[in-house]
């Protein structure tokens, strides 16, 4: 009888162990020694363990992500929705933008293409976008967005706007979803644009009603000048974009959105700029955690180390944890995506272009291999986080294409 009781106890214990959530030692796409990943996994383990004092029930496991620069690339040429605005005003014959908006869009596009300072905007580019699509039905507008998302992103080979996601962050969203978190996005991007952008990549984890963004005004086709509160939607009506930006979801507005649209504070927040500080502070105020991405990768994305260092200091002062894209991401967009850019029109002979990388890379100018760097060349080997790699330029390189490629290996060194 005693042996039977012990056997039953072992069986019950085994069943209980099988019922516990499985925690991965790593998250796909993140470096094995990533401090942020270790922090995230430890926190998720604590809040999902029913025996822990930190346990949070699934219905309260709200996590909030910013989009541009946090889930989706924004460094070059710029935010995806602003790229669509330039296309609409400059390269779409059906658009009817006013002359000032068109002139500004032309200056903006030229500045991005030539890596020049950006022109001052005469007014809100979000309002320009709202006006440029005025009269579209919601279905026409979302169809336009889907077509735009199929276009290639300038500055890269092998990536469309619809594929412009940070691969490790996509895996993080999937990881949190698998552990019972309700994943929301809160972004300054217009929400219909954002819903279409994430549909194929993150739609299974983030349904449309969990996408919070800036908002364009809408009206019914038969509404005329009648106010919303006085008009009843008719059977033959359609919903149109009216042409105004009525809510910009940035800074304090993100806290307002949490209160009004979610109804509970997030226990985790992920962002990448001061525009996300408000919702991060709100999460910390209510016992949560905040993580901020640093745009410090200059070999796999168009990062800026000086900007990243300044931002990291600001985050540390506020109690936010940071994520180095250069040091903590094994990949950015995926290894099939190649960084490419056009060199300036004027280059002095024997100039140097520097890249900072913690990974092996090859640099090509118009197809010619100009520098091939391997971490094994470094005295510190694969323990190094990043080194500055020079690429010597010639006067004749002006206006040529520069590509930065991550080589692929077999065996233990494969990336």
Question: Characteristics of this structure?
Answer:
415 residues; alpha/beta; 5-stranded antiparallel beta sheet; 12 helices; 14 strands; 20% strand; disordered N terminus; disordered C terminus
Principal-axis shape equals: globular
Strand order of the largest sheet: 5-4-3-1-6-7-8
Sheet with the most strands, sense and barrel status = 7 strands, mixed
Helix run count: 12
Distance between the termini: 56 Å
Structural class call reads alpha/beta
The percent range for helix content is 25-40%
DSSP strand (E) fraction? 15-25%
Q: Work out the radius of gyration.
A: 24 Å
- The topology string of helices and strands comes to HHEHHHHEHEHEEHEHEHEHEEEEEE
Q: Would you count the extended β strands for me?
A: 14
Mean pLDDT, as a whole number? 88
Low-confidence stretches: 1-21, 379-384, 408-415
Report on the structure:
The protein has 415 residues and is of the alpha/beta class. Strands 5-4-3-1-6-7-8 form a 7-stranded mixed beta sheet. The chain is globular and about 70 Å long. The chain starts with a helix and ends in a 10-residue tail after the last strand. 36% of the residues are buried.
């Amino acid at each position: 009888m005693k042996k039977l009781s012990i056997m039953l106890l072992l069986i019950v214990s085994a069943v209980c162990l099988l019922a516990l959530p499985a925690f991965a030692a790593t998250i796909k796409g993140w470096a094995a020694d990533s401090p942020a990943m270790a922090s995230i996994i430890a926190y998720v383990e604590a809040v999902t363990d029913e025996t822990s004092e930190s346990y949070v029930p699934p219905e309260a496991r709200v996590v909030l992500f910013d989009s541009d620069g946090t889930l989706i690339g924004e460094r070059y040429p710029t935010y995806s929705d602003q790229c669509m605005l330039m296309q609409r005003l400059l390269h779409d014959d059906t658009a009817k933008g006013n002359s000032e908006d068109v002139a500004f869009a032309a200056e903006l596009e030229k500045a991005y293409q030539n890596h020049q300072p950006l022109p001052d905007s005469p007014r809100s580019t979000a309002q320009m976008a709202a006006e440029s699509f005025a009269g579209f039905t919601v279905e026409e507008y979302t169809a336009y967005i889907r077509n735009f998302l199929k276009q290639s992103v300038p500055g890269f080979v092998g990536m469309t706007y619809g594929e412009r996601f940070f691969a490790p962050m996509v895996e993080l969203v999937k990881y949190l979803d698998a552990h019972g978190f309700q994943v929301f996005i809160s972004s300054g991007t217009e929400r219909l644009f954002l819903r279409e952008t994430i549909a194929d990549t993150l739609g299974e984890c983030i349904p449309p009603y969990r996408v919070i963004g800036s908002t364009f005004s809408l009206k019914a086709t038969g509404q005329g000048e009648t106010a919303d509160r006085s008009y009843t939607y008719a059977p033959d009506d359609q919903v149109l974009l009216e042409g105004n930006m009525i809510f910009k979801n940035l800074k304090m507005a993100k806290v307002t959105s949490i209160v009004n649209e979610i109804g509970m504070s997030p226990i985790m927040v992920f962002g990448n700029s001061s525009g996300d500080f408000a919702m991060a502070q709100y999460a910390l105020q209510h016992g949560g955690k905040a993580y901020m991405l640093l745009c410090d990768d200059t070999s796999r994305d168009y990062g800026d180390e000086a900007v990243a260092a300044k931002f990291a200091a600001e985050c540390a002062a506020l109690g936010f944890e940071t994520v180095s894209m250069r040091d903590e991401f094994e990949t950015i967009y995926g290894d099939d995506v190649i960084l490419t850019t056009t060199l300036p029109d004027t280059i002095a002979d024997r100039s140097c272009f520097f890249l900072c990388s913690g990974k092996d890379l090859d640099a090509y100018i118009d197809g010619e291999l100009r520098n091939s760097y391997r971490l094994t060349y470094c005295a510190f080997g694969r323990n190094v986080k990043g080194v500055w790699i020079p690429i010597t330029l010639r006067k004749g390189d002006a206006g040529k294409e520069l590509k930065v490629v991550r080589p692929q290996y077999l065996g233990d060194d494969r990336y």
